[in-house]
């Protein structure tokens, strides 16, 4: 009888101890939920700040080169649409979007008389313009983006057969994001008016990327880009 009473008391004391532990666990869980909320709010703030900085940089580049007004947004719109159509990961799409918005940031250092020149560029002038991916990389490399933004900017003029610049990278050496951006960049440039020529139109742009599919431009990027225009799932806003 005495033993039974002891076991009962022990059981009650175990239950009380367990309740206390549960209360403690609930408290720490609530604390974790709160910390998670604070963290996610901070991340959201950081993301908004990064977007804001990227947009300001894009505006700054286009002020220096009025002939490419809207270029960054249009290229980004096309490259992101291509990546989404391919079901690429949100991380890759976000990298393409951020790099797309500032891919020509290195041109900020190129004098306007070269950027806006109507006639033929000298080798020296062309050399200065060709340096813009590297300068862009130097400007961005220390910023802690959520993705390889600086490298994508560095590689957006590379070509599949190694004839691009500035590093002459080939095929898989070039980041997927940069291969997508390269195709969108070329298509947008051909479709748009330039100081030295009229806009050449979507058909001419699609012919350019199709003729050099797998040689200059990534095959999958070309295929999905052509598909988007043929299906009328994408068009540049006027
Ligand atoms: Fe560029």
Q: What would you say about this model in short?
A:
It contains ten helices and no strands. The protein is mainly alpha-helical.
Mind sketching the topology for me?
Blueprint (H helix, E strand, L loop, with lengths): L1 H63 L6 H15 L4 H13 L9 H4 L7 H8 L1 H9 L8 H7 L20 H16 L10 H10 L7 H12 L8
Helix pairs in contact: 2-3, 2-8, 2-10, 3-7, 3-8, 6-7, 7-8, 8-9, 9-10
Bound molecules: fe (ii) ion.
Structural write-up:
The chain is an all-alpha fold. The protein has a single domain, classed as Hypothetical protein af1432 (Orthogonal Bundle), CATH 1.10.3210.10. Helices cover 66% and strands 0% of the residues. The chain contains 10 helices and no strands. Helix 2 packs antiparallel against helix 3 and helix 8 packs antiparallel against helix 9. The model has no long low-confidence stretch (mean pLDDT 89). Fe (ii) ion binds next to loops.
Give a short account of the largest sheet. Answer: none
Proper CATH architecture? Orthogonal Bundle
Classify the fold: give the CATH topology: Hypothetical protein af1432
**Rg value:** 27 Å
* Dominant shape: elongated
């Amino acid at each position: 009888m005495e033993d039974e009473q002891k076991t009962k008391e022990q059981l009650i004391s175990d239950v009380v101890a367990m309740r206390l532990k549960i209360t403690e666990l609930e408290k720490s869980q609530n604390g974790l939920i709160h910390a998670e909320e604070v963290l996610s709010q901070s991340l959201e703030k950081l993301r908004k700040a990064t977007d804001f900085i990227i947009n300001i940089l894009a505006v700054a580049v286009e002020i220096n080169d009025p002939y490419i007004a809207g270029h960054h947004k249009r290229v980004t719109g096309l490259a992101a649409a291509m990546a989404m159509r391919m079901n690429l990961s949100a991380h890759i799409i976000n990298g393409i979007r951020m790099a797309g918005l500032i891919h020509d940031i290195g041109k900020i250092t190129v004098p306007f008389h070269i950027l806006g020149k109507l006639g033929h560029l000298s080798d020296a002038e062309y050399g200065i313009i060709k340096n813009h991916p590297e300068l862009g990389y130097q400007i961005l490399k220390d910023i802690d983006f959520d993705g390889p933004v600086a490298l994508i900017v560095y590689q957006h003029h590379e070509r599949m057969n190694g004839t691009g610049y500035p590093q002459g990278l080939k095929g898989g050496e070039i980041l997927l994001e940069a291969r997508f951006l390269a195709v969108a960049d070329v298509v947008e440039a051909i479709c748009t008016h330039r100081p030295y020529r009229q806009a050449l139109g979507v058909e001419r742009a699609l012919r350019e990327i199709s003729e050099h599919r797998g040689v200059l431009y990534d095959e999958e990027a070309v295929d999905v880009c052509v598909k988007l225009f043929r299906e009328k799932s994408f068009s540049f806003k006027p």
